[in-house]
Write a structure and sequence with these properties.
Function: Pyridoxal 5'-phosphate (PLP)-binding protein, which is involved in PLP homeostasis.
Modified residues (N6-(pyridoxal phosphate)lysine): 47
Low-confidence stretches: none
Oligomer: single chain
CATH superfamily: Alanine racemase
GO molecular function: pyridoxal phosphate binding
Number of helices: 9
Number of domains: 1
Domain Alanine racemase N-terminal: 51-241
Order of helices and strands: HEHEHEHEHEHEHEHEH
Family: Belongs to the pyridoxal phosphate-binding protein YggS/PROSC family.
Shape: globular
């Protein structure tokens, strides 16, 4: 399958140009925060985006993609299978969809309960596998968002770390959709500070330093607050199509 099967040359070129722009902004923000230009990974948030658009990004050298829904992760897998990439689940995971997720995702960023983590670990025991995970923390404390409360994060992190088949990479959050930096940044600084405290206490292993936070409208601020992975969708692909 070619990425130009249903996209025009101009549409493909636009995606590549936006990818390059996001990469430049990410590198500049990393350097401004005192880190190397390549210290922050770009994960392409591909919710409702068709496989042909994702293929353009993969062919352009961006190999990290994230899906919000398991059914989309599964549906696009065959169309992307011939291109090297790593798939993350970045949305809520229902326990009855764990099996489908483990067939196609190399990382699950939305671990928000011990019940879910244990279900995943048990299934991995059956198939003799492992999976990378992030613990999702609800730093904005919005009822509409998933994630463990910050004050409960240490207990969950400790429990997840004890599960032998889950490789804990760090913490994830979805920031507050504020209008100003003063509104947005606390959700991200809180996650950075929480990570540091959990590493200092020994709850998080010293290698689990990754912070997945920041999206198209605020990823520069997230990087300034220590993000090591930003989830970019509309800045690359444009407005989401109707699902």
């Amino acid at each position: 399958m070619s990425s130009t099967d249903t996209l025009t040359a101009d549409e493909s070129a636009d995606i590549r140009a936006r990818l390059d722009e996001v990469a430049e902004r990410t590198a500049a923000a990393a350097q401004a925060s005192g880190r190397d230009a390549d210290a922050v990974q770009i994960l392409l948030a591909t919710k409702t985006q068709p496989a042909e658009k994702i293929r353009v990004a993969l062919e352009h050298g961006f190999g990290l993609i994230g899906e919000n829904k398991v059914q989309e992760l599964v549906a696009k897998a065959d169309d992307l299978a011939d291109l090297p990439h790593e798939s993350h689940l970045i949305g809520p995971l229902q326990k009855n969809k764990v099996n489908h997720t483990l067939r196609h995702a190399q990382c699950i960023q939305s671990i928000d309960s011990l019940d879910l983590a244990t279900k995943i670990d048990n299934r991995l025991g059956v198939i003799d596998g492992t999976v990378d995970v992030f613990v999702q923390v609800n730093t904005s404390r919005e009822d509409s968002k998933s994630g463990v409360a910050p004050e409960d994060a240490e207990a969950l992190v400790t429990a997840v770390r004890a599960l032998q088949r889950l490789r804990l990479r760090g913490l994830m959050t979805i920031g507050l959709p504020g209008q100003t930096p003063e509104e947005i940044r606390p959700s991200y600084s809180d996650l950075r500070e929480l990570s540091a405290r959990l590493i200092d206490s020994g709850a998080l292993p010293e290698t689990a330093t990754e912070l997945s936070m920041g999206m198209s409208n605020d990823f520069d601020l997230a990087i300034a607050e220590g993000a090591t992975m930003v989830r970019i969708g509309s800045s690359v692909f444009g407005a989401r199509p109707t699902a």
